Amino acid sequence: MVDAIIAQNLSRAFGNVRALVDASFIVGRGEVFGFLGPNGCGKTTTIRLLTTLIAPTSGTVQVFGYDVCKDPVKVRECIGLVQQAPSYEPYLSVSKNISMYGYLDGMSRKEAIASAVKMMALFSLNDHAERKAVQLSIGMKRKLQIAREFVREPLLLFLDEPTVGLDPEAKRMVLDLIKEKARSGMTVFFTTHNLSEAEYLCDRVAILDRGRIVVIDTPQAILQSTKTDNLEDAYFSVIRRNRT
Predict the structure, then answer these.
(1) What is the CA radius of gyration of the chain?
(2) Mean pLDDT highest for which of 6-15, 115-124, 228-237?
(3) Which among 115, 131, 142, 184 is placed 20 to 30 Å from 99, CA to CA?
(4) Is 113 helix (H, G, I), strand (E, B) or coil?
(5) Beta bridge partners of 191
(6) What residue numbers bound the domain in which 53 lies?
(7) Which of 181, 138, 173 has its CA nearest to residue 157?
(8) What is the CATH number of the domain that holds 44?
(9) How far apart are CA 90 and CA 168, in angstroms?
(10) What distance lies between CA 241 and its chain's CA centroid?
(11) Do residues 156 and 187 lie in contact, with contact meaning Cβ atoms separated by under 8 Å?
């Protein structure tokens, strides 16, 4: 079985700005892979490259064996994406937003509606089922974005700061759901500024700084190498070391 993601010497420049420089990494099937780093270090650019939204300046990426530049349609059939920016149909109801995603992914109308009901219950959206998405609170809109992707059961799910705007209870529910889906075979690529989330969730993490990957390892190995007790302290140790 091919790996979920194979990136080799991946780079992306915007004019004279090098947003990502020679990034190479492999994400195995069923792995929860964390992508950590300061604002502007290249995390979202990397996700946009891996999900075919932009093309690399140089280097290659394969998703389940499909080249993101040569086979973008095949790649998109395998993946789901929760972006930082709002992405939903603002004037459709919550239930229609979710069921539409299932229907477009090949479910029958009945299956899509049943899946939407299940997701609304899971994300505590039942009481808002007939409200238009635009009328929801920030936290509810975030739940809707995540629920829409989970209803599709993609092989590989990209989550770009997925818990921003969620209350603590909803955050833990989302993290536990990600763990559950990973155990059943879903691969997850996860960016976050919340390092306790990464420590709780991720099998391995990559730490970026100034567009370059400076370390890839398990959270436990990074803690040992930096002689720290939590991933937040280890993260800052890695960043400081990279800049000296």
Answers:
(1) 18
(2) 6-15
(3) 184
(4) helix
(5) 35, 160
(6) 5-86+156-243
(7) 181
(8) 3.40.50.300
(9) 25
(10) 27
(11) yes
Strands 66-67 and 212-217: unpaired
Per-residue pLDDT tens over the stretch 110-152: 999 999 999 999 999 999 999 999 999 988 999 999 998 888 8
For 47, residues 6+ apart whose C-beta sits below 8 A from its C-beta are 35, 81, 83, 158, 160, 189, 191
DSSP bridge partners of 38: none
Predicted model pTM:
0.91
Cα angle value 230/234/238 (rounded, 5°): 170
Residue whose token pair is 């705007």: 165
Chain centre distance of CA 127? 27
Mean pLDDT of 14-25: 95
> What DSSP state is assigned to residue 107?
-
- In the chain, the number of structural domains is 1
Q: Does residue 1 register a pLDDT over 80?
A: no
Residue with tokens 């730490």: 207
Q: What would the pLDDT profile of 29-61 be if each residue is shown by its tens digit? A: 999 999 998 888 899 999 999 999 999 999 999
Number of other CB atoms surrounding residue 121 within 10 Å: 11
Say if residues 174 and 204 touch (Cβ distance below 8 Å).
Answer: no
Domain membership of residue 120 (yes or no) is: no
